[in-house]
Amino acid sequence: MKRKIIIIGGGASGLVAAICGAREGAGVTIVEHMDRVGKKILSTGNGRCNMTNLDMRPECYRCGQPAFPMKVLEGFTVEQTLEFFRELGIETRSRGGYIYPGSDQASAVLDVLRREVERLGVVVLTGCEVREVSAVEGCRPRDTHFVVKTSQGDLAADAVILAAGSKAAPNTGSDGSGYELAKGLGHKVIRPLPALVQLRCQGRHYKQLAGIRTEAHLSLYADGSLLAEDTGELQLTDYGLSGIPTFQISRFAARALDAGQKVTVRVDFLPSWPEHEAFERLRERAARLGYKTAEEMMVGLLNRKLAAVLLQAAGIDPAQPAGGLRNKQLSRLLEQLKSYQALVMSVNPFANAQVCCGGVDTRQVDPATMESRCRPGLYLAGEILDVDGICGGYNLQFAWSSGAVAGRNAARGHV
């Protein structure tokens, strides 16, 4: 008889788990509480779906057990992922190692996954809420069966894959309900917090800066200790900081704020100016453009609105002749240009986050099979786990890999 697998969650990891499980000969049912599967896939990569990345390194992932994510990826590599999707019809293109579907449409990725699920005869129950998962112990060790109580009736299974997502982007279906199911089955859940998210900062002047994009280097500090840093296009909003470099450091801000620490971001608005020559370059600029005002001297160096705010922070009259700026004034201005301090009050909520940091403790999951160490026959995949990647296709790759490994092993059972 076919092994019966129930997959709770029809996102990226759940869909790949279903396909891999069905290909191994299992009878698979996806239980999804939204009205359709894969909604979050449609929003990835700004609708273009950054599927994976050719530059796959351990430091691209954050996890309580740092070696865990890469061990999972060994079971279903980037190369295997690309071949998996090529077989489904997705030709890919690389932009500096960032991999997208050739059509630049996230909908194409979802379409081929849904079509393969349909072709393999996977049962998909949408609008179906999972109320409880209970394990029924058999006569022999590891001989466990499951009953999944849902809003559409009780379902029996030989194995359950918990791929219910995190709490990030709840409008796509990630409501955190999977955490409670995991706890009910004996798992520890590390407090989930928003990650890959904007930072809300103290100060009214941000309203003047809203909409500005500029290259910058960000350094995140908690109680004076450096936690993370990144360089890229910073986006200034009416409440603080956004953009890729902000997202990359945000999970550390969330953790530090949750621990009650003082969190600041030092912003270098001139990352191309080396520290050891920055003052001389600024002084030379002031001398060369001495016939201009301080405000005019900044034109061509920084966005005009940003320059005005930084001049004010440095205590410099924008109408003062640039040639008359004293060294102390230039030093104060340079401090704002190279070491602007943003006091972080909070991160934006789950509704704005792309992923979460935290989740099911990975010490309780076997990375070679994705099987629970607490409950034989239970497998976990995707964002429900305490794994979060940086921007660039890393979170989707972990979803594909963990889903594939979970699906195959759930179908094969215990050898």
Low-confidence stretches: none
Fraction of residues in helix: 25-40%
CA-based gyration radius: 25 Å
Shape field: elongated
Please report the total strand number as a whole number: 21
Beta content comes to 25-35%
CATH architecture of the largest domain: 3-Layer(bba) Sandwich
Q: CA-to-CA gap between the ends?
A: 16 Å
CATH topology name of the largest domain, in short, is FAD/NAD(P)-binding domain
Tally of distinct domains: 2
Describe the structure.
This is NAD(P)/FAD-dependent oxidoreductase. It comes from Enterocloster asparagiformis. InterPro entries: BaiN-like (IPR004792), BaiN-like_dom_sf (IPR023166), FAD/NAD-bd_sf (IPR036188), RsdA/BaiN/AoA(So)-like_dom (IPR055178), RsdA/BaiN/AoA(So)_Rossmann (IPR057661). Its cofactor is FAD. The chain has two domains: 4-193 and 357-412, FAD/NAD(P)-binding domain (3-Layer(bba) Sandwich), CATH 3.50.50.60; 198-347, Helicase, Ruva Protein, domain 3 (Orthogonal Bundle). The chain contains twelve helices and 21 strands. It is an alpha+beta fold and 415 residues long. The protein is elongated and about 85 Å long. The longest helix has 19 residues, at 394-412. The model has no long low-confidence stretch (mean pLDDT 96). Helix 1 (12-23) runs parallel beside helix 4 (106-119). It is 32% helix and 27% strand.
Topology:
Elements: E1 4-8, H1 12-23, E2 27-32, E3 52-53, E4 61-63, H2 68-74, H3 78-88, E5 92-95, E6 98-101, H4 106-119, E7 123-126, E8 130-137, E9 144-150, E10 153-157, E11 159-162, H5 177-184, E12 189-195, E13 199-201, H6 206-209, E14 213-222, E15 225-236, E16 240-242, H7 244-258, E17 263-268, H8 275-288, H9 294-297, H10 304-313, H11 327-339, E18 340-347, E19 355-360, E20 378-380, E21 387-389, H12 394-412
Parallel strand pairs: 1-2, 1-11, 2-7, 11-20
Antiparallel strand pairs: 3-6, 4-21, 5-6, 8-9, 9-10, 12-19, 13-16, 13-18, 14-15, 14-17, 15-16, 17-18
